[in-house]
Design a protein that fits this description.
Blueprint: H1 7-16, E1 27-36, E2 39-43, E3 50-53, H2 65-68, E4 74-81, E5 90-92, H3 94-110, E6 115-123, E7 126-131, E8 134-139, E9 156-165, E10 170-174, H4 176-192, E11 199-208, E12 211-216, E13 219-224, E14 245-254, E15 259-263, H5 271-274, E16 284-292, E17 296-302, E18 305-310, H6 321-324, E19 330-339, E20 344-348, H7 351-361
Antiparallel strand pairs: 1-2, 1-4, 2-3, 4-5, 6-7, 6-9, 7-8, 9-10, 11-12, 11-14, 12-13, 14-15, 16-17, 16-19, 17-18, 19-20
Length: 362
């Protein structure tokens, strides 16, 4: 007569029939079989179904877990807690995704390829962007325009990976290097088509204190602040704006350094040439104070023409210019030295009396 198996013996036999063992940090395949309130049950071939908490599905809180995990999906999962006594194994999907994403980004960086990143937000000093499910930082200096505010949330941009360090969770991206690489590929061909004094149209893509960069057929030309306006300006943004289309004149081409220099002010008439027949030495004219320094004041005597009034030409004694003048003041001056060909005009106030005396004697 066959012996009857006890419950204890049956449980031991059932337990021993599972030769599949799981350990923490293992990556296993599983099928999503049931949705729970705070997660999913997953069949990984163990004695019991494992649990995938919602918090372990994605790194991003704004992601809808139901869009990432669906019933009967087969995926790879990371074991963060194995089966123990009556407790079931706990899984993580985001750890697998993170590991795979970091490896992919490392491969992209090693091969010097580009990748698409989605702009998530603008922060101090740059942008936060999502790439392969990870969040990376694009410093302002690595943006093509240098201005995070110019980027739209959700916009996809092509980037290079500067640093990918999963241990420090550090991902640094660059949009500018993409354009630098593209520029190197086409710069020789484009520069060969350009010539000094040629007028071209371009888009302002970056503004700095020293000037602006203008995209000319795919390469960035430098528009120095001194070439933006004949009149004194404090900053390039006083005249031009990011994204603005402007016509400029090519004033220099450096084929060795592969750089072009541009001018906006030379698109119009040169005021220094216009004044040659309008003024002469000894003329008394009115002008506006543009700048005050320790050695004198710069006076605008004609649109785009600035002349120097030295301190020594104001009075025979010591003078405090800041107490005498304010920016924007209109004053009367005498043209003492007139060399417009060299863009130099010297003024005097104290010589006005002498000029008046000569007029009276005549």
């Amino acid at each position: 007569m066959a012996e009857t198996m006890t419950n204890q013996e049956f449980e031991e036999l059932l337990s021993n029939s599972y030769t599949y063992k799981i350990n923490v940090a293992d990556v296993v395949k599983g099928v999503v079989v049931k949705k729970e309130k705070d997660g999913f049950l997953v069949d990984i071939g163990a004695k019991t179904e494992a649990f995938l908490p919602n918090r372990e599905i994605s790194n991003f809180q704004d992601k809808n877990v139901d869009e990432i995990v669906k019933l009967w999906d087969e995926k790879e999962f990371y074991i963060i807690k194995d089966e123990e006594d009556d407790e079931i194994a706990v899984l993580s999907l985001k750890k697998v995704s993170c590991a795979q994403a970091w490896q992919k980004l490392t491969d992209i960086k090693t091969s010097n390829e580009t990748a698409l990143a989605k702009v998530l937000s603008s922060v101090k000093g740059g942008l936060i962007a999502e790439i392969e499910g990870l969040r990376g930082f694009i410093p302002s200096s690595q943006l093509r325009t240098g201005a995070p505010s110019e980027m739209q949330i959700g916009q996809e941009i092509e980037v290079k990976i500067l640093e990918a360090d999963p241990k420090r969770n550090k991902l640094i991206l660059s949009q500018r290097q993409v354009y630098t690489q593209q520029r190197e590929m086409v710069v020789d061909e484009i520069i060969s088509k350009l010539a000094i004094d040629q007028i071209v149209e371009g888009e302002v893509v970056r503004i700095a204190d020293f000037g602006a960069f203008v995209d000319i057929e795919g390469i960035d030309g430098l528009l120095p602040i001194s070439e933006i306006s004949w009149e004194r300006i404090k900053h390039p943004s006083d005249v031009i704006q990011l994204g603005q289309k402007i016509q400029v004149k090519i004033i220099k081409i450096d084929e060795n350094l592969k750089r072009i220099s541009l001018s906006l002010k030379r698109m119009g008439a040169n005021p220094w040439e216009e004044i040659i027949d309008k003024f002469k030495e000894g003329d008394v004219v009115k002008g506006t104070i543009n700048k005050i320094t320790s050695f004198g004041a710069f006076i605008n005597i004609y649109p785009g023409v600035e002349a120097l009034l030295p301190s020594s030409e104001i009075s025979d004694g010591q003078v405090n210019l800041n107490s005498m003048f304010n920016l924007g003041d209109e004053i009367e001056v005498l043209i003492k030295k007139f060399t417009p060909q060299e863009h130099r005009i010297g003024l005097s106030m104290k010589d006005i009396k002498e000029a008046n005396k000569e007029e009276v004697s005549e």
